[in-house]
Structures are given as C-alpha cells and as structure tokens.
Amino acid sequence: QAAGMSRLSLLCLFISVTVVASSDILPEGYYGRFKLDHSENFDDYLSAKGYGWLTRRLVSLASVTKVFKKAGPTSFDYENLTTKKDIHYKGVVLGKEFIGEGLDSSKQKVTFSLRGGRLYEKHVPTDADAEQKEDEYAYKLNGDTLVQTLQASGVVAKRYFQRQ
C-alpha cells in the first residue's frame, strides 16, 4: 500500500511539473501577423496616461501590426510595427525580463507572461524621464482577432487586431 501511495505521489508530481512547464510556452494561436482593425476608448486611455492632443492624434492614426514568430522550443520573436517606429524583440521567453526599446526609444524592462489564459506585456522604463510610462497590456485571442486591453486611471480601452 505504501508503494501504491508513492507511485501516486510521483504521478501527481509529474503531472504538476508537466502542467507548469507547458504554461511557459506561448500558445500556438498567438503565432502570426495581426493588423489593427479598430479601437474602443483609445483616446480616453491616452488622455488618462497624460498624453496631449497632438500625440493622441498621431498615436490613434498610426497603423499597427503585431507579429509573433516561433524562435525556439520555448521562445518567440515579437514585432510591433507602426508608421512611427518598429519594435523588434528576439528570443522572448515567457516570464523572463529583458531590456528592450520602447516606442519613445527609451530603454524598458519588458516581460511577457501568461496568466488566466491571457498574454501580458509589461513595460517598466529604466529612465525616470522616459516619455513612455510603466504599463501592462493584456492580449486575448477571440477566433482570428487578437484583442488588446489597456488600462489607465480606471479608463479601459480595447484594440482589435485581425489575423492577416
């Protein structure tokens, strides 16, 4: 009976490790190219972040494409392509912080993670005077639509990207 309990304990441990390990991999559905289709409440979000009218107009009118490419067994490459500036992050590993460039060209501590079935992208500027402030974006797949949720001072905005 003790041997049976021991095998059961090992089986439970194996299942737990397997589940934890598989959650550290970007789900297949995220791989691809997604082009911005439309936004909801985005101007109010940018205003809550403290951006002025001209900056809000430029950001709102910018074309945006997000690209996720498999780079290795547990890593991916991410591109945020805009009419203002293209951002490229290579060899991203979920849960592992790295230094990347922000849209304002400042250096950012960037971390991608999975929580509750959503992908999160967190940015923390390394310079106190960076134009781009600390932020975290949530992504969720809805069929062929990648929905990005952004929040600032109680204002919630959504941006909808269509798979290309």
UniProtKB/TrEMBL annotation:
Signal peptide stretch: 1-22
Keyword Nucleotide-binding recorded: no
Keywords per UniProt: Lipid-binding, Signal, Transport
Keyword hit for DNA repair: no
Gene Ontology MF term list: lipid binding
Database matches in InterPro entries: Calycin, Fatty_acid-bd, Lbp1-4
Annotated ranges, domain Cytosolic fatty-acid binding proteins: 32-49
Top-level division of the source organism's lineage: Eukaryota
CDD domains assigned to the protein according to its UniProt record, in alphabetical order: FABP
Family recorded in the similarity comment: Belongs to the calycin superfamily. Fatty-acid binding protein (FABP) family.
Protein name: Cytosolic fatty-acid binding proteins domain-containing protein
